[in-house]
Amino acid sequence: xxxxxxxxxxxxxxxxxxxxxxxxxxxxxxxxxxxxxxxxxxxxxxxxxxxxxxxxxxxxxxxxxxxxxxxxxxxxxxxxxxxxxxxxxxxxxxxx
Length: 96
Fold this sequence. Notes:
The chain is 52% helix and 9% strand. The chain is mostly helical and 96 residues long. The chain starts with 8 loop residues before the first strand and ends in a 9-residue tail after the last helix.
């Protein structure tokens, strides 16, 4: 396998080779090399076998959640859970 980030195809090349790519994904499964493509060979998207996507989907969700948390932390204004509970009319003792 070559570097996963090397040799991006043009969007046109990716479109024209889609049938062959799908067949390769069916045959090679998780070991199939991803296809990187974009306008003028600038990497903008990646095609991977679906079973590879299923394997990494939880990690992608964790990354998105972490980025949301980082943005909220940078923005400041965080308050203890007990204060938030009280603001919502809940018993803060339930959250200690």
